[in-house]
Amino acid sequence: MTDFGFALLGQDGAARLGRVTTAHGVIDTPAFMPVGTAATVKAMQPESVAATGAQIILGNTYHLMLRPGAERIAKLGGLHKFMNWPGPILTDSGGFQVMSLTDLRKLDENGVTFRSHIDGSYHTLTPERSIEIQHLLDADITMCFDECPPYPCERDDVARAMELSMRWAKRSKDAFQPRPGYGLFGINQGGVHADLRQQSAKALVDIGFDGYAIGGLAVGEGRAMMFDALDVTLPHLPQDKPRYLMGVGKPEDIVGAVARGVDMFDCVLPTRSGRTAQAWTPSGSLNMRNTRHKDDPRPIDAACACPACQYSRAYIHHLIKAEEILGAMLLTWHNLHYYQDLMRAIRAAIAEGRFAAFQQDFAQAQGDIEPIEGTAP
User: Fold this and answer.
1) Where does CATH 3.20.20.105 sit in the chain?
2) Fewer CB near the last or first residue (10 Å), C or N of the chain?
3) Coil, strand, or helix at residue 5?
4) CATH class of the region 5-266
């Protein structure tokens, strides 16, 4: 069995080219992970997700523990077999979802007691239980259980949440069962406060993890503050371990984070956009609901090889207006393909030592997000 590991293959400035090795395959980095919250990437078959170039997907502890249940998935052969995805899977810890249930949960040192959003039943999620669930799911990459405070948030509350998360990180490490090809990532917290981010980084490195995530960003603080937080955090994380920016994001956020040394990303944006008529392209995004597309014979992107771009904008517009399921399926496929094309282009630029030029060209090509007609930009 292959050991879990990370190889740093090259750098261009702070941008890193690497490869993560797991029990279920390799991940070329920088990498974008499509989100498969409930054991499915919405509107996509697993083989279609793989066809976009995605090598790893993300599953969610909170949703899967509630339905269909981690023990049930384990009895059925684990998450890879259950959802017919043979490649690597990263599972988040459930912490972010539980913390968002402000009116339905109670937090203490032990963990979080909460009511299910599905049927109101009570559950307790602790670092130990989160790690157990992720083990039952057979996740290649397991995430520590943490508390993700909202933004804005008082500094004292951010510090308390960060310190609790570090104690939970140690408990998560103690509960994790090491085995070849499987890794555990710690999660850096501290909001937008440089000293708290650095304190968190030191605590995590002292515990020791197979990879390091940056959590608690892309929660409303804005791009400039997010980049500032990365600038003060990343230098304090090990060079020889993968770095994962959780919940990010927009293409320009990904490019900017890669420039700062981030290796892995996930976000619901491409799939959610696919279900809400938004198509991402190298020159910005299009809203396919807009009537300007109804007579347009061009594809969404003439240079794109995805199935959606075998059809006209007029046809995609028709599917959206008619509320046909195929519209959401095609746009989701297109968006995931675009994101994977972006990651391929980023990796090539780093490998060839031209990432700074790539970043400049990318910024110049980006247009505005196309609004729905009749609304303000």
Assistant:
1) 5-266
2) C
3) strand
4) alpha beta
The tens place of each residue's pLDDT in the chain, 377 residues long, gives: 789 999 999 999 999 999 999 999 999 999 999 999 999 999 999 999 999 999 999 999 999 999 999 999 999 999 999 999 999 999 999 888 877 777 778 899 999 998 888 998 999 999 999 999 999 999 999 999 999 988 999 999 999 999 999 999 999 999 999 999 999 999 999 999 999 999 999 999 999 999 999 999 999 999 999 999 999 999 999 999 999 999 999 999 999 999 999 999 999 999 999 999 999 999 999 999 999 999 999 999 999 999 999 999 999 999 999 999 999 999 999 999 999 999 999 999 999 999 999 999 999 998 777 877 855 43
Which sign does the torsion angle of CA 200, 217, 255, 364 carry?
negative
- Give me the catalytic one of 92, 138, 146, 253: 92
* 296 is an active site residue: no
Amino acid, res. 95: G
Which of 140, 266, 301, 341 is flagged as catalytic? Answer: 266
Give yes or no: 266 in active site: yes
